[in-house]
Fold this protein.
Amino acid sequence: KNEVEQSPQNLTAQEGEFITINCSYSVGISALHWLQQHPGGGIVSLFMLSSGKKKHGRLIATINIQEKHSSLHITASHPRDSAVYICAVTGNQFYFGTGTSLTVIP
Amino acid sequence: DTAVSQTPKYLVTQMGNDKSIKCEQNLGHDTMYWYKQDSKKFLKIMFSYNNKELIINETVPNRFSPKSPDKAHLNLHINSLELGDSAVYFCASSQGSWQPQHFGDGTRLSIL
């Protein structure tokens, strides 16, 4: 079993929809990261969280340390948001989730 | 100006060969990393260097060796390449260990 589980694995949404991607982890962590991998392969770090909530533009990330759970929300989704979103946690090691492939249809 | 640059972008070679992938960052970061992304798109940390010291070394084969001539460079040397080494290798850097990272564009390694 992977130390970091993401759901859903694949997600298709209509442009404008509100999107939620979930991440659960089973290890003790010092921080949680959300990454975005574009179809061309490039990886961008979106957020690093250790508590609470962070917002950047239309993206919001939350974390609940007690429940070992984080969510990434995208408001007013757009086709350019189509990418793979990866959750990763840092504890004594660095663990990655398997990613959520998001497709936003115009 | 590219922040984290890897070369080459593509590398096709035969089994048994020795190859290197170079990585340079111009962000002044003190920590650099190498990741492997397999065919199922699963990312895994391989190495991390902080101030020229190896601070994490996952259970990768010792055929893989990171070499850091200075804080701005972390090169990956691979000896006796095997079919299972085919993957995309990403370099990244951050200011402080496990802080938000900047990634290179990846090097796609294909073993024939």
